[in-house]
Amino acid sequence: VNAQRGFTIFSPIEGSAAEADALHRLLVELGDADASGEGTGLGLPAFGDLHFASMSVVPLSSGVWHLVFEGNVDGDPDTFLRQLVTTSAPVLHTIYERCADFPAPGRRSTDAVLAYLARHDIGSGSFYVGLPGFSVAKTRQERDLRAAIEEIVDDPDSGVLDGAAAEVRAAIARVVLDQPDMRWAETPGPRPFLVRRGRVLVAAVGALVGLRVVRILAQAFGRRNPARRRARRSLLALLGLGGVVAALLRREERGDDRRDAEHPERQPDWQAAYDAWNTHLGRVRALEDRQVQNHMISVVAIKPGPFRAVALRVVLSAIHAVAILWENRGQLGGISSIHFARWVIAPGGKDLVFLSNFDGSWESYLDEFIDRASFGLTAVWSNSDDVVGFPSTRWLVTRGARDEARFKAFARSSMWPSSLWYSAYPSLTVANMIDNAAIRDDLCRTLDAADDETWRRRL
Amino acid sequence: VSSAVARPDAATWADVQGLVVSGYASMHEARLLLLAVDDPVAARRWIGDVAGRVTDASGPEARRCVNLGFTAAGLRALGLTDRELATFPAPFTEGISAEQRRRALGDDGPSHPENWAWGGTAPDAAIGADRIHAVLLLYARDAATIDEVVAEETALLAGSWTILHTERPEPLPGALTPDGKLGVEHFGFADGISRVLVRDSGQEDGVGWAETQRSVIEAGEFVLGYANGYAKCTPWPRLDASGPGGERFGVNGTFLVVRKLAQDVAGFRRWTTAEAARVERDPEWLAAKVVGRWRSGAPLALAPDADDPDLALANEFGFADIDPDGMRCPFGAHIRRTNPRDWLLDDPVEAQKITNLHRLIRRGRVYGPGLAEGAIEDDGIERGLLFLAVNGNIERQFEFVQHSWVVNPTFHGLAGESDPLIANAAGGGTFRVPADPVRQRAEGIPSFVTVRAGAYFFLPGIAALRTLGARS
Asked: Does A78 touch chain B (CB under 8 A)?
């Protein structure tokens, strides 16, 4: 199986807000063309390995506007980009000729354009894939299988409901597998190694680390242990380091609270800043809720100073590791609505950019964040700032996002229109995809009565 | 401002409009007068005057009740500045018929605001969204008194406001369940069983533990200025003037959602009969599955097989323990979508807490006469529900329920179906009914409910009404 991978291409734009807006409008048009099939777009629906793609125009804190091209594909992003450059060159050129240092006309060979894109691709950063192993092909196949089974069940002439309940699954399987192009459904879908074994690996490493800690503790407090002095020194060093980090962290947080109280733009409070920003939001919201899924792009400034820079990178690395090893079955900290999401540090190192392809409305997405995953969210975003300012935090992870109204204002204020956005399976939620895969996986398996009932209830 | 979290006290309830805590059930007659400002100076003077008559939330019910709300266009017409209006939440300033809100609410086809009787967006609409400035809600015990009240208020409005339109809900008690305990809406189902009790209002006194977890909601969810479900204050609108009239203008205020929902009763009867025959079931069974309750009000979660009038008032149930698979009450049933109770997460206690961040206080009344019993052809008379809902955060409460629960075709793992009772704007909907050995699927569901009109109103506290009235 080709793992899902991502690219995020940041291209500086020549010109000011007016040029940025013109590009935004062009992208909206191109996106609409792809969605309706009328007119010429980028031709994204033709790619069998593309899950989601987006293009947005955002300002970084350097003052330079950037075109952000995000893609989530099966396998190597370069393969996809090469195909895209080959098939959609003219449209791609009209987009990118507004960007600085894009090859001049006459020098836009496939390789030159690819080299340009590669130069500006910063990868997928701290990357969360909702369902690793679910390729576009598998997702669409299983969606179609589900539809076929629903039809068979609804057809009184199919006879699949004539026997006992326990016979139903086998009867359905017979009808399905009768169709030559459905034979693949006989075997369960692939499951990537880390989905099967990631948690075991984490548990094993955790156990080793735990044993080591117990051993050091035993040495430090054991009587007449020869390693006692060394163990105690290690413990003290560790505690000391922890204390220093904690003190630095609290100093930062108290500084933020003070600045919040004193900042002239935030008088009388953050609401005024948000109210002023609210008019800008219309452009963002005009492109939302057009289907079951939604997209968001958020740009915030990383707080100044080395402490925040380090803290942010540590937290992002931790989230990336958790996403790869543990949270790889459709849920991230209890949030079950994310297909692909990433945090990347934009070129220049001053801005944190969040991109997400998710199910449901923005409001429900943020509610899930706040109600179920506020710790992780606070740990990342509290290292950053926008016109509203991140709500006050304690110990990096508490409070923060739990301040619902201000947190939503912070998040909204950081958003830019998802000018062009494509989804390969716009009507499917993560929950639907899990159901569809389970229906396929267990179609022909030997199941006990309870699991057989669970299978039937998924329909 | 928003960090100081207070709890309501007696002074609060003397300032909050009464509709928040009461549906005025003893007031059998109600009128909604939609108003437009004629003369801003005179209109403000009238507001200062009517503030003395507005029913608050503290006392026993009077012989008549008066409540008053404004649209964003109304507040602008009354002289609020752009800067002041910007302190109101976006759904209120944009209005219920704004394009992206309409899209999220599922108001399409015949329910599109372009077709609304009032509050809509058709360019030639007589009472378009921008034209409606205020709603005056009048309640009285009987028909004679309401006529008196309307005549008096009409006289007082003259010269300062124009009455654009009057909504006349049916008098209470209207149709009742056989035991007389509950009102019946036009499709024939007992209504108004699940309820919200506002914390610190006295409504929650003597309520048992389980019912408290389920139904007692923080005051700040409905009254601005107090702790909401996150133990924070929902931001409230402010005026530029200094002092309590400026900075605390929105405190004790709330938002009122009004939607006029026409019901195709004949269509509902025809479809349940025909579709039940197709899936070889009883029409009453299918209708109950669609609603989630039997006609008496008995919930399917407690009475899965047949109606049980003894359970008509039952509200003390969840779905997590007794019906996790929807074998009793389908996931897509109307009452399970609009109030999922303890079931959206694995942990029922947490799930109930999440649900309670999206509750509404319903104050609607039925309009139009009932369709003759057994009739399956429409009689040409419009009937339905004048839906009124009180909430402090339109986005997180009314709009969330409507978009993420009612309309959402993928609600909690479902695929391609919306609320079968109220959300099939396009017609041709489907509805999955879990059963053994496999689910049945009802099809071809027409649009039973058409949105005919709607608006969002701000209901200020009474002191804030006086502030408005005193502005020059």
From this structure: no
Supply the DSSP symbol for A231: H
Q: Choose the mutation target among A404, A406, A439 for the interface with B, i.e. most B CBs under 10 Å.
A: A404
Q: Which two tokens stand for residue A217?
A: 């503790």
- Kindly state whether B399 is in contact with chain A, defined as any CB-CB distance less than 8 angstroms: yes
Which of the four pLDDT bands, split at 50, 70 and 90, describes residue B173?
confident
CB-CB under 8 Å, B1 with A429: no
How far B364 CA lies from chain A's nearest CA (Å)?
26
What residues of B are in contact with residue A290 (Cβ under 8 Å)?
Answer: 103
Q: Are the beta carbons of A364 and B399 separated by less than 8 Å?
A: no
CB B106 within 8 A of CB B407: yes
The tokens describing A389, both together, are 């300012």
- CA B177/CA B14 separation, integer angstroms: 35
By DSSP bridging, strand B216-217 and strand B197-198 are parallel
pLDDT at position A282: 87
Predicted local distance difference test score (pLDDT) of residue B244: 66
Residues sharing a CB contact under 8 Å with residue A102, sequence separation 6 or more, in sequence order: A11, A96, A116
Q: Which value, to the nearest 10 degrees, does the dihedral of the CA atoms of residues A251, A256, A261, A263 take?
A: 130
Contact A219, A225 (CB under 8 A): yes
292-331 in chain A: CB under 8 A from chain B: 292
ipTM of the complex: 0.93
At A263 the pLDDT is 66
Using 50, 70 and 90 to split pLDDT, how confident is the model at B1?
Answer: very low
Chain-chain contact of A402 with B437 (C-beta, under 8 angstroms) = no
A432 contacts on B by Cβ (under 8 Å): 410, 413, 415
Task: Find the length of chain A.
Answer: 459
In this predicted structure, what is the pLDDT of residue B357?
Answer: 97
A168 touches B at CB < 8 Å: yes
Output the DSSP codes for A373-386. -HHHHHHHHTTEE-
The number of C-alpha atoms within 13 Å of B236 and in the hemisphere containing its C-beta is 36
Out of A161, A360, A435, closest to residue B438 by CB = A161
Q: What is the mean pLDDT of residues A223-251?
A: 91
SS3 assignment for chain B: CCCCCECCCHHHHCCCEHHHCCCCCCCCEEEEEEEEECCHHHHHHHHHHHCCCCCECCCCCCCEEEEEEECHHHHHHCCCCHHHHCCCCHHHHHCCCCHHHHHHHCCCHHHCHHHCCECECCCCCCCECCCCCEEEEEEECCHHHHHHHHHHHHHHHCCCEEEEEEECCCCCCCCECCCCCCEECCCCCECCCCCCEECCCCCCCCCCHHHHHHHEECHHHCCCCEECCCCCECCCCCCCCCCHHHHCCCCCCEEEEEEEEEECHHHHHHHHHHHHHHCCCCHHHHHHHHHCECCCCCECCCCCCCCCHHHCCCCCCCCCCCCCCCCCCCCCCHHHHHCCCCCCCCCHHHHHHHHHHHCCEECCEEECCCCCCCCCCCCCCCCEEEEEEEECCCHHHHHHHHHHHHHCCCHHHCCCCCCCCCCCCCCCEEEEECCCCCCEEEEEECCCEEEEEEEEEEECCHHHHHHHHHCC
